[in-house]
Amino acid sequence: MSNSTKQDKISIEKFDPRHLPDDFYVDPYPYYRQLREDAPVHLCPDGSYFLSKHAELRKIYRDPKTFSSDKKALFKPLFGDTLLYEHHTTSLVFNDPPLHTHVRRAIGDALSQKTIVAMEAGLKELVDELLNKLEEKQQFDFVEDYASIIPIEVISNLLRVPQEDRDQLRRWAVAILGALEFDLPKDKLDLGNQCVKEFLDYLKDFVADRKNNLSDDDDDILSRLIRWDFDGFQLSEKQLFHQCIFLLNAGHDTTTNLIANGMQTLLAHPDQLEKLKQEPDLIKSAVEEFLRFESPVQLGNRMTTTDVEIAGVEIPANTNLNLGIGAANRDPDIYSDPETLDITRNPRDHHAFAGGIHLCAGLNVARLEAQIAIPAILKRFPDLRSLETPVYDRRARFRAILTMPVSVN
Ligand code: HEM
Q: Which of 83, 287, 328, 409 is the most exposed place for a label (fewest CB within 10 A)?
């Protein structure tokens, strides 16, 4: 997406995340800008608030007691008594301590810097093989044929999912995470539930096999979750399965979007693309800028546990807060010229990975994937160009490109 150019004032008085206009999905940033300016703590028609300033999000992420991640009250009316409800209310991300603390500690070192360094050579090899295939094609879809393949392989390697089982993961992830969108039609809810069922069926054998063959040397995420026993707390089978589903989903849809959004952003900003080609060492800073400028996760949620005041607005307990990550990451109080892509900016304090106790556990995995995938394709195909305008998914939570046809010459 190019820098937002719409200058017309949008009336956001009636801004409603449940009923968004079509152009929001293509370019949400003019709406975010108006929200920051006119109503940084905006009361939505359903009684929730939409927050769009960087400072407010930071305070909320740092205070998990006042701002809960538990989504049971929020999801019950949306999902009813279904598998989607069971999944989204059991995974660590939508829980407070103590379940959250146990899972987070159990994952612990499995995503540490040591693991990341060990991944690097294999990742470069995978990317090289993919590029060899694309060289034969000349024209391809950047999302389908490149960006989506790398994260599936990486997260599957981390959980040791057999090669032949990996194809189905993307369909499950998109349907299950997609069910978090506002006002979902019944067919999408049904698909989400069906995908949780298929995923659970798959995991029954997969986890049982791992349990039966567990060795003392195994230190991957799943082995650590299976073994977790602290002060008598062990994960039930249901809790274990839902952490696996979350990890497999969280680990790839978002990273696919980071790689695709990053590439699309560069193609739309030829000066920045040229700069990166000239100075490849800028890639780390560039990836942080992609995360800020086109945050793959655009929205988060927290529930107030007591009456609070946020930026002068009194908010009662049990109120749902929509945290505008994509909006906060373009806050002019924090970033100069925030609607401009600047790959030298290195904005490490963005909220793309949230913050506080729920700070993304896989952030360095995601960073590494993008830091390898983007330069590698630019090096192999220096004349890579768009063939058509990319199509964005109608998802407010995730900034996701559906199709992005490109040519290597
Ligand atoms: C660019 C890619 C990614 C983005 C933008 C992203 C973003 C996020 C965000 C915003 C959260 C916090 C949600 C909240 O509390 O409201 C989160 C949590 C999480 N992410 Fe990521 N993520 C990415 C990649 C990954 C990868 C590759 C993995 C695994 C290898 C991963 C694993 C997790 C886990 C386990 C949590 C839950 C943390 C907790 O609740 O303590 N993520 N991520």
A: 409
